[in-house]
Amino acid sequence: MPRKLSIVVGFLCLSIMSIILAACLIEFDPPTVQGPFVDSMGRRINGVSHGSAQGWAGPVSVTLAIRNGFIETANVRGPRETAGWGADAIASSMEIIVLTNSVELDTLAASTITTRAITYAGRQALERLGAIATGPAAPGPGGGGDGRFPGRWYVTNFWSNDVHVVCGLTLQIVRHIDFARFATPSRQSHYLVIDQTETYLWIGQIGGNLWVYNLETSVVEEIWTPADVTPNVAVADIGMIQCHEGRWLFSVGGRHIHIFDMENKQYVGSIANLPPGSTSAQSDNPHVIEVCPDNRLLWASDHNGGGVFAFDISGLPNTIPTAPLHAFNIFEQIRHGVNGGPAFTGTVGASTDAPIPQLVGHALAVHPNNRFLFLGSFQTNALRGSGTFVICIDPSSSTLGQVLHRIPGRPHNFAISPDGNTLLVCDNNRALSETVRGTIVFTEFSDHLADLGFDVQRMENTFLTYTVDISSLWDIPNWEQVGITNVYATTGVGRANHAIFSPCGAEFHVTYDGIPNTTAPGPFVTFRVQPDFRLTPEVAPRVITPHNTLLVGLQPHAIAKPGLTR
Asked: In the chain, N or C terminus with fewer CB closer than 10 Å?
């Protein structure tokens, strides 16, 4: 090849490689976040507004909900847009609008006209609110100005003792934090918390210490050991949660719940151990915990005793609760049936008629209206008795503390959609049948799905996450409507561990165990939310497959975002 031609070819190759490298780098950059919207007086905008514009095949509508100047939810609809083109642009736009706090979109899914319609409709919605853009936000410690989410998910892997950071837009790993290098490897706790500025990551070790890791300097700045808390017990175990306003962190350790001030990185004190025998003879350690939306009550389930407890945390840091405000005996209620239903029985020994031996309270969530508590049990040796239990926690109601409704299943964890209309259930099912006295029988859960119209034979080897319609709980509950709608199924990935919705609710992410008894990494799976949650005679039940699957560490569990762990 002539020398001049060789130089030209080499230059072209180098240019192409540079473009590819630049594209890759751009792909992994967090999105530019726009500052808060304000009115003509400089006050931050609050409100909901709607706009519409003509798309490729029909009208495109955009509904924006703005709180404190930032777009909290974006609902984009264009039912006539082309599948694979305009429809994909609409699906991805909702997340991008919320993450960037902007309706000014680059072309999505190669659909220029649909993308332009979304932008025009979004501008119209903003104009109706009198919203004025303030330009790019000043970068905060975590890369998201003014406390905005920069679009990164943190996934803890409690067998490989590390954390993977996933970009919310590209769904690719952008950072790996290996905690095994700081100490002798020990299983990480199931949960992790990221502060609202995305400066510090809080994570514990099962039955051991609690660490505070600086995400900017990659240094563990604080380590609390059992000797640092009162009494001298484990600082971390299973449950860990932060309150909604972001200051207090609660960590389960043994029979105690420890309280930390996240702003000042200080230990505040510990809530005393659960009263023995307050719910049943099998009362056990606190397991999972949740904070009410108004930050006044901390709820806890005990692991095997079948009870739920509420502690008044409104007086922190000066007043630490010494006893539960409420203690409800759920085990005794459900073992005799719910609302006149049959008593629940298990597969104890050779009999399927023995009473269920315990209630494993592993999933916990509070409805946004503060009137209902969801408790999930994945009783693995019971044909009956597992499920999602809806409990009244309204102190003004005559049914306070009572189980009002039950949905069959084996919940491992819950997530509630941003609009509060949908409960997402990570199920512990590995199969829909069980072997009883040498005979394979379908479980109550599989029978329930079959009654709803699902093909349970085809779902036998899948691992399930499903949605439950809870929209009627905002007003007068319609218990016939509160039930499973869509099933999100995967194969060969192990049980579902934890799930979390994106800020706008357009998709959710689920972690799964991975292949049992192997060193294969587990998956971080993304599902696109289907708009028709409710089942009607005209809407057949659907089994939805993943939008994206990303392999992370060994047995991934919790997912967190700055200021968001639920």
From this structure: N
